[in-house]
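Researcher: We're teaching a course module on how sequence relates to structure. For the next exercise, students receive a sequence and then see the predicted structure as tokens, so they can try to spot secondary structure elements on their own. Here is the exercise chain.
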Amino acid sequence: MALLDWTCRQLSDHLDGQVRMHIRLRIPMFLGGLFFLLLMACAVVRAQAPEQERQVKAAYLYKFAGFVDWPDGSFERPDSPLLIGVAGDTALAEQLELSVAGHSVNGRVVQVKKVRRGEPLAGLHVLYLGGLDKALAQEMLVASRGLALLTVSDSDEVHAMGSMINFVMARDRMRFDVALKPVAQAHIRISARMLLAAYRVQTEGA
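Model: And here is the predicted structure for the students to work with:
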């Protein structure tokens, strides 16, 4: 995938000695998650421009889907697509469409849907909330309750209101936090390999 190639080329320029040592020490201990850890390492690049930041977020959203288990009944048919909704960020939705074109997750075609206010969230498997005002973000989070839906944000404020994953900048690099309480309430499961790659994992919260 072109995006993965780009992020990996950036890795050699941007990862400092401490991060390189961390990767060398951790990967041999978790060979089952080797590919995921390598992708996370490649995606941890300096956000030099909005376009590059969108590319990294799109890569994360695509890979998140491969490390989440949804409960029975989350897909209508064995061949139903995995649907990623994007609210509040048209540019990211378009980037994500490019990133997932021709790709699948666990044998399911990945599709992207631009979600607008008032539209039902049922049928989505991942929902990214970006660039939304507080009221609209809260409205969508409330609407997501009771659904087996992985919610992702890029605002600490929205994360505090109950999003499951939140993009953060750490030492000028894109990382992500995970809140386990809303994950459990949605009856979905996040792989331990993904939790290992997280910047912070919160066991309490909204």
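Model: If you want an answer key for the exercise: Confidence is low (pLDDT under 50) at residues 1-32. DSSP finds nine helices and ten strands in the chain.
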